[in-house]
Design brief:
Elements (H helix, E strand, L loop, with lengths): L1 E9 L16 H12 L10 E2 L8 E11 L5 H11 L4 E9 L9 E11 L13 E2 L6 H11 L1 E4 L14 E12 L4 E8 L6 H13 L7 H8 L2 H4 L8 E8 L16
Parallel strand pairs: 3-10, 5-6
Antiparallel strand pairs: 1-3, 1-4, 2-3, 5-9, 5-10, 7-8, 8-9
Helix pairs in contact: 3-4
Organism: Levilactobacillus suantsaii
Pfam families: PseudoU_synth_1 (PF01416)
Subunit structure: Homodimer.
Amino acid sequence: MQRYKVTLMYDGTAFAGFQRQPNKRTVEGVLTKVVNKMAKNPTPAIGVYGSGRTDAGVHALAQVVHFDLPFNIPAESMRKGLNSLLPMDMEVTHVDLVAADFHARYDVSGKRYLYRMDLGEFRNPFKRNYTGHWKFPIDLAKINTALQDLVGEHDYTSFVASGAQTRTFVRTIYEATCHVDQHNNELIFEFYGNGFMYNQIRIMVGVLVEIGSGTRPVHDVLRLYQVKDRKQAQRTAPAAGLYLKHVYYMGEDPQHPTKLPPHQR
């Protein structure tokens, strides 16, 4: 068996998320069908395993999956073959032949996400699938001050939606930044950490734009750590603005080389 590590991008607009679901179009479902078609539909079917889930409407610039084939196809031929069969809203950017013990999910050491928030006065119909929207004045200095409260190891209970399948809400955020893209009139957030939970980034962005608009104290994040109450974070930014930017594996980032512990996956 040859194991393949595949990096792909996708427009999440028309997907019901990454994870396969009955009678719904998902990234995992579409990719699994294509991989099995390339392998001439073997029995049992070939499984595809992702680095993690993305929700409905969330995009990926570099999602990572792995699968095994009972025969060897060169990496570049695999990339071209997959792209010839995938729909227009998915594209494989890289394929690696990897060791049999590589796992796209369990070997992750960190993930980087970005969030785009349109600042126009009116909601732009041409951006609605690719950005959030915030029409109120923003103080970028307040947001960047609040971002530093998010960095480090914390219990993010207040920032996780109900339904999160995890045994602990403790995670570590290594970097959190925000800047204004003047050309597109957007706030661009980036978060890099050892793992993120269900809706965590979208909830954090919701809190941050309220801080930037002055409706929350600058250091309200510290209070939210203490209360451990999702209802007090309130707002969840739209899925359309969220992008999985990069998945890190052992050896790719010497500053943060440790895999996410099993109880935090």
